[in-house]
Amino acid sequence: MKMNNAFLALLGLPATAVGFALSTQIAALSWILSNKYGLDIHDVTFVWLAGPIAGIFGQVIVGMLSDNVWFMGGRRRPFIMIGGMVSTVAFLALPHIHGISKITGITDIIIIASVIALFLDLSINVTFNPARSIIADLTPEGKIRTSGFVWMQIISGFFGVFAYFLSMVFGNETLLYIAAVIVFITAVFPILFIQEKKDQTETQQADKEKFGIWQIIKEIYPLYGFLLFGIFSLLFHFFTEQLAVWHNPVLIVAISYSVLIGIYNIVTGIKNTSNKNEFQKIMLAHSFTWVAFQSMFIMSGFFIENQILPNINISNVVANWFAEKLTGNSQTAAASIGNIVSLGFFILNLIGAIFPLILQSIAKNIGRVKTYIGALSFSAIGYFYIAYFSKVELDFYIGMFLVGIGWSAVISIVFAIMSERVNPAKMGLFMGVFNLAVVLPQMMSNGVANIIKETGNHQLLYIFCGALVTCSIIFWMFVKEPESSGTKQNIPSGGH
């Protein structure tokens, strides 16, 4: 098959459904829970815990299954289509939590919201792993594979930008209905035009390595700190008073373990370089990044409400212009918060969609790891800028622009680097294992929320984000460049 841009763009289309679903979730979930259903910052972050829980089981299990099954004409295809359908149902259900409460007799809104969020996140996780794995399946290692993930991010990113635009124009409730339609169409139909390889390569066929639950548990030992706090977070929600005294000590232990194990991996890698060690270094470095990004996604609305909205006149909010001009509806304070968040994430995702091409060009000259470190440094600067200088609406947008440069690399380049450190016969499985470096750290955002709630200092959100990304950058400095990154590499014309 030809590895031209048209084919790479087609390979990126399944990720479009996931990108649009994620953007819709980020734009609408926290807003609808806090403004329509009255949940506070602690309850909102608890509902968001459904995502990491779904990822823990969904990504690894689906990855393992999709490596070894063939039905509906593919390995990855059935999971992408099923995931898209479940996402559609979840989006349609979110605006009707009160109605579902009456029908089911369940009066606890948090339980219903968590169940819906769980299904939404399960569907996203079921879809995203195969959507990324199919790119690695059908592209050769090196520049072509990097291009595949770059195209994935460009297409997915622009659809994400579109989601935030729709949020500003029509509001978050309407966005949920639009998302149900778009996700269904982009998940179900494009994958029908992608032909997967039924026969594995000789190397893959000869591979008899068993990789069960115990091997996965051993593989993710750098993430034990995040797993510990994730379990504690679930218990803390139900036994808050009894466990309050343990919250900060457990959080400190979890972070300390992660830092120390990172240092151990670096020292081990210096003495004995191996793909396994490199994979674990990448996994841990990536995990710190995701504590920051997930915390930002969940709690930016609370930051806007407490740090920016008191300093501005609602009638002059730039983010309200779209809705007011295109629909004629005046915007309330609650709507303004949602609009500012959406415009900020609109900017972040627009940069995230454009910059992968720029980063790809830079990577050809200096390598992917150095390019990634440079891009992530802009995110750290952006977070600290928002924390210390964000007083009005424009400041937030400037910070999001800078954070977006790093975001463009986080969801494109890193997968190309990681995929060359694992067994290609088990790409789906390792994509799922690597995703634990995303979902387990996400559970740490609950700890960030609790500290903010205790102190009442919403500035801490972006201080923590900046510090965590800085820690990630330090660990990335010890990740070795894959050999295929060489600028003089010969590029094969077909898959492997």
Explain this structure.
There is one protein chain. Mean pLDDT is 82; it is low at 201-206 and 487-496. The protein contains 22 helices and no strands. It has a single domain, classed as Growth Hormone, Chain: A, CATH 1.20.1250.20. With 496 residues, it is mostly helical. It has helices at 5-12, 14-36, 41-48, 50-68, 77-93, 97-104, 109-138, 143-170, 172-188, 202-206, 213-219, 224-238, 240-271, 275-308, 321-327, 333-366, 368-389, 393-410, 413-419, 427-442, 445-455, 460-476. It starts with a helix and ends in a 20-residue tail after the last helix.
Secondary-structure blueprint:
Elements: H1 5-12, H2 14-36, H3 41-48, H4 50-68, H5 77-93, H6 97-104, H7 109-138, H8 143-170, H9 172-188, H10 202-206, H11 213-219, H12 224-238, H13 240-271, H14 275-308, H15 321-327, H16 333-366, H17 368-389, H18 393-410, H19 413-419, H20 427-442, H21 445-455, H22 460-476
Overview features:
496 residues; mainly alpha; Growth Hormone, Chain: A; 0% strand; globular; disordered C terminus
Which H/E pattern describes the elements? Answer: HHHHHHHHHHHHHHHHHHHHHH
Structural class category? mainly alpha
Q: What are the segments in which pLDDT stays under 50 over at least 5 consecutive residues?
A: 201-206, 487-496
CATH topology: Growth Hormone, Chain: A
Work out the count of structural domains: 1
Q: In percent, how much strand structure appears in the residues? A: under 5%
Query: By CATH's scheme, which homologous superfamily applies?
Result: MFS general substrate transporter like domains
**Silhouette:** globular
